[in-house]
Design a protein that fits this description.
Helix content is 33%, strand content 25%. The protein has helices at residues 49-58, 61-84, 94-110, 123-130, 154-159, 179-185; strands at residues 11-14, 17-22, 27-30, 91-92, 135-143, 161-165, 168-172, 192-199, 205-214. Helix 1 packs across helix 3 (94-110) and helix 3 crosses helix 4.
């Protein structure tokens, strides 16, 4: 009589990164990034505007609809968490939504999380070009990892969680589990938010939160 063993779960971890930019000087502060096991953290391809446009066009209507729901859910979680901690809810900014989604596409193109890639403007410039003018302060949270096992939904990217794919467990460290990201989310001085969630061809979701305060 044959027996079947349960698949062994291997714990893999992914840690998101945060960027805080203060005032008009745009002085960045980012936390250390830990690349998930089995992935490469070296090499970043340049992401041009034409390739980003092509990627957006190639996405199915189903994926686009899912991304919209994911982005909305992150805003809901963010404002609920802020309320619990005594901060006013953030207003959704169309400009910040554009900036965040574009950056999520850039992360997907480069297949790594980050705040600025070759050919990409810095955070303050990205937000200004997207239409958010006279920001008193801006900050950004980013998350994502190649392969599709990490940050699989809005709850995981916000609060952390473990998902199983092909018998392997993927543990995501959520933004609220990290000091830098939590500080950005609970910055009561911020007034507006934009969220990006881009699903690449392999099913991985690349996340961005952009925060800003009006002068």
């Amino acid at each position: 009589m044959s027996s079947h063993r349960r698949p062994r779960l291997i714990a893999l971890f992914a840690v998101p990164i945060a960027l805080l930019v203060l005032g008009a000087l745009f002085l960045g502060r980012s936390s250390a990034t830990a690349a998930p096991a089995g992935s490469s953290s070296s090499g970043a391809a340049s992401a041009g505007a034409s390739s980003l446009s092509a990627a957006a066009t190639a996405q199915s209507k189903k994926k686009i609809a899912k991304q919209k729901k994911l982005r909305k859910k992150v805003i809901q979680f963010t404002n609920a968490t802020r309320k619990e901690n005594g901060c006013k809810p953030l207003k959704k900014s169309k400009a910040l939504m554009r900036a965040a989604q574009k950056h999520s596409r850039v992360q997907a193109k480069n297949q790594k999380q980050g705040h600025q890639f070759p050919g990409e403007d810095d955070l303050g410039t990205r937000i200004a070009k997207a239409g958010f003018k006279n920001a008193g302060g801006v900050s950004e949270n980013a998350a994502g990892a190649a392969g599709g096992g990490w940050f699989v939904n809005a709850r995981h990217v916000m609060y952390g969680g473990t998902a199983t794919k092909n018998g392997t467990g993927f543990t995501s460290i959520g933004w609220m589990e990290s000091k830098g990201h939590k500080a950005n989310i609970l910055n009561c001085s911020s007034t507006h938010i934009g969220v990006g969630a881009y699903i690449d061809g392999k099913g991985a979701i690349w996340w961005t939160q952009n925060f800003a305060a009006k002068r």
